[in-house]
Design a protein that fits this description.
disordered C terminus, four-stranded antiparallel sheet, 323 residues
Length: 323
């Protein structure tokens, strides 16, 4: 019997979940439609950008993703405790980036004086927003609905774009998490859409190896088209690799990026009878293909988050100034 989603997701059991969404009838609505020849590949970039954008707004981290031609995969980490640290104003700023909110919330944002009854109502609304900003269902709603509306407008049609809201699977152990992330990052390899992980477009592993997303440009376009009301929150990178378990509090992934890349490369070379593609056996290991020594890679991996923030902080400020 099918269980409700609220019973399938419990942060006390695990914060990590594998999320999938498929296009209706598994049609290639985000790639090349082999029946008509129409190319919808540009939608994959829009989805990838929105995944990063929503991760910055919500208390949800992205460990891995792959946007394919007829479905998408996400490996997410829920961090509802992070929502509790946000002030009322921060919660409202994040939520009203996507939704206008009722009149009372709009007045609260502008600093309009409110009486006690109105403030009580505002506090209740903010409490609801706080819960939603840590909820995977609202995250997926904010991801899938705009994409469906955009696609239907482009195609001049109505109806469903996704076959269902989404499917979720709890990742209860480190082995399950690692296996799932590897499976997700190797999706384009198995589908014979890319020869190597570093050439796999619209995947987390490619973005980790060579960050190329221009989120500032995307935010500017969304603000101009009024698909975003405002955007005054820090851009969040992918969930970092923190290496082995230490005595300090760790919020990231408990293995190193070096080990993970080696594992993905090794696994991708395995030939599966039910899959079309694999990494060619004659290719050298991934770090050699990238021309990076192991020591250099470890230094780069350690500083990756700082580099990411520095890259986009200035761009985000320019977007904020022009908004």
């Amino acid at each position: 019997m099918t269980l409700p989603r609220k019973s399938l997701i419990c942060v006390d059991d695990t914060p990590f979940y594998h999320i999938t969404s498929r296009c209706v009838r598994r049609s290639f609505l985000c790639g090349v439609d082999h029946a008509t020849g129409a190319d919808y590949s540009h939608r994959r970039l829009f989805i990838e950008q929105r995944i990063h954008l929503l991760s910055s707004i919500f208390a949800i981290d992205i460990a891995a993703y792959a946007v394919m031609s007829n479905h998408l995969h996400l490996v997410v980490k829920l961090s509802p405790e992070g929502v509790d640290d946000w002030t009322h104003q921060e919660v409202v700023e994040r939520w009203t980036s996507l939704f206008k909110g009722p009149l009372l919330i709009q007045q609260y944002s502008k600093g309009v004086w409110l009486d006690d009854a109105e403030r009580q109502t505002v506090n209740e609304i903010i409490h609801t927003y706080r819960q939603r900003l840590g909820d995977i269902s609202w995250f997926m709603k904010c991801l899938n609905e705009p994409i469906a509306r955009m696609a239907n407008k482009e195609d001049g049609c109505r109806g469903h774009f996704w076959e269902a809201r989404y499917h979720s699977q709890a990742l209860l152990t480190q082995e399950a998490l690692l296996s799932c992330m590897t499976y997700v990052d190797l999706n384009p390899i198995r589908a014979a859409m890319a020869p190597t992980p570093e050439e796999s477009e619209h995947t987390s592993i490619k973005e980790r190896i060579s960050p190329s997303l221009n989120l500032a440009e995307s935010i500017s376009e969304l603000l101009a088209s009024q698909q975003l009301n405002t955007f005054n929150v820090p851009l969040k990178p992918l969930l970092p690799f923190e290496g082995n378990i230490t005595l300090n509090t760790q919020q990231g992934l408990l293995f190193s990026l070096d080990d993970y890349l080696t594992l993905v490369d090794f696994t991708g070379r395995a030939i599966c009878d039910d899959k079309r593609g694999a990494i060619a056996l004659h290719l050298p290991p991934i770090l050699e293909r990238l021309g990076i020594e192991r020591k250099t890679w470890l230094i780069n991996a350690t500083a990756f988050e700082k580099i990411y923030h520095k890259r986009f902080a200035k761009k985000r400020q320019r977007v904020k100034n022009t908004a």
